[in-house]
Amino acid sequence: MPRMSSTNTHELEVRLTHLNLQRAGRAVLRDINWTIRPAERWVLAGGNGAGKTQLLKIVAGVVWPTPGRRAVRHYRLQGLETTTPFGIKEEIAYLGAERQDKYQRYGWNMRAERIAGTGLYRTDIPLERTTAADARRIRTVLAALGVAHLASRPFLSLSYGERRVILMARALLSRPRLLLLDEVFNGLDDLNRRRILRWLARAARRLPWVLATHRLEDVPEGATHALVLNRGRVEYAGPLRAAPLAQWLETSARDGALRPRRARTGRARTLVRLRAARVYLDERCVLRDISLTVHAGEWWLVHGHNGSGKTTLLRTLYGDHGVAAGGLIERAGVTSGVPLESFKKRVGFIAPHLQAEHPRELSVAEVVQSGRHASIGLNEPPSAADRAAARRALGSFGLTALSTRSLAELSYGQSRRVLFARAWVREPQLLLLDEPFAGLDAATRRALRERLMALAEAGAAVMISAHRLQEWSACATHELELADGKVRYCGPLRSRATLARRAMGGLR
To answer: Which residue from 468, 496, 482, 451 is spatially nearest to 188, judged by alpha carbons?
Structure first.
């Protein structure tokens, strides 16, 4: 490796020249030219499938670009330059949804402090004994991010947002010279979101970073540059002040631009009912004394801070978790001798764990077909009816061209659209949606909101957990606020001003 001059030999510079990437014979990235200098903090924008995640993985050294005569990937560190990531990628921390999903997929369930501590050794799971000095560093970083109280909890017992913050701590504990964050704010409540925004703003003078996002309000203070990808090509790369981000990033104001809807009048069919329900996970009481009745045609907005029990509630209604003795759950059509699967087949369910648990080698069509059976994958060959229903759902969500691709070939946002088609494949009577828009671009979110509203107006019930309450306040009819596993409010939707105050101030 030839020596090169550098003003600060401890800083890392990355330069991509004429890079291309092909996956399964498809062009994902085309003629990428991009330089990340030590003093720069980049915002990465673009639609679903534009190539953002793959570009970050190329920078991180975990994906190799397609060989080409002019294609070069340069890294400069400590006065040396290399065209391979060997010896360099350990200096780059990458955090995205796929890394988080890996812990769910493989059942890695060590204590949260142990998972965070793997950043010290740059391993996926703990392989080294933690020293006293290491333990102090781990506690310091967890405290800085406001999650020290989670240190002893099993990682998979945490909420999706809590896991994200623990993995952020893991990235910081690796003491990277470059931090790559792929949709890091997905699943975070407002308190945790503000903490990370503040941290990124404070880190501006000592750590370069790249942040991929779909939302304008998630652009941190201190960002200096922007890169916009469009169908695998660089559409803009330069100073943030001149970047066309308003064309590509959604804002809260536009999120709320929905026509209002009202609850149906008259008696409606009861779909599911909870009475004094308690739910235990890993011998820990996660939900306490929950009473709730959901009728056809209602739209419930479920909210609360990370760890308040939103996901557990939705999974309990679906049938993944049981209710402890003394409580009651009733589901329409499920009586003695009727299998729970008969209810699940009438429910559309979208949640992060489903995206993690579906085998990556499954085709898009197979994932959608599995929705007909409420299964993960297919236990038997699909019937003609399964295939026909899947074709209709794929066409309805604009996924026909992706039907033969495997999940491994899709972006995170594209995979989330597949879960929507899977949920729709049986025209459900009840939709249970856990942060369903995580990773989706602005245009896709708008189109899917309209689909949700059409289904609700046709008589289906919707229960959706969300942190961005303004996104749903125009169409929801009812509201359930959870705090530490208990009901704080349950009833008709309150005013938008009240929701805004709850989102900003109703957090611990």
So the answer is: 468
Domain that holds residue 27: 13-248
Q: What one-letter code names the amino acid at 242?
A: A
Q: Judge contact between 17 and 72, C-beta under 8 A.
A: yes
Beta strands across the sheet bearing 486-492: 347-350, 430-434, 461-465, 299-303, 478-483, 486-492
State whether 177 and 308 are in the same domain.
Answer: no
Mean pLDDT value across residues 429-453? 91
Please count the residues of the chain.
508
Number of domains forming the structure of the chain: 3
Burial-class residue 388 by CB neighbours within 10 Å (0-12, 13-18, 19+). Answer: exposed
Under the banding of pLDDT at 50, 70 and 90, the label for residue 418 is: very high
* Residue 38 in domain: yes
Helix (H) or strand (E) holding 168: helix 160-173
DSSP 8-state symbol, 132 = H
Mean pLDDT, the chain, as a whole number? 90
**Residue 288 forms part of a structural domain:** yes
**Are residues 184 and 284 located together in one domain of the fold?**
no
Q: Strand, helix or coil at 462?
A: strand
Dump pLDDT digits (tens) for 200-220: 988 766 899 999 999 999 999
Beta bridge partners of 180: 94, 210
Question: Is there a contact between 262 and 453 (Cβ–Cβ < 8 Å)?
Answer: no
Residue 198 included in any domain: yes
In 3D space, the residue among 47, 55, 41 whose CA is nearest the CA of residue 225 turns out to be: 41
pTM, entire model: 0.90
Among residues 409, 427, 445, the one where a domain terminates is 427
Domain edge (last residue) among 427, 443, 467: 427
CATH code for the domain of 198: 3.40.50.300
Say if residue 333 is in the same domain as residue 200: no
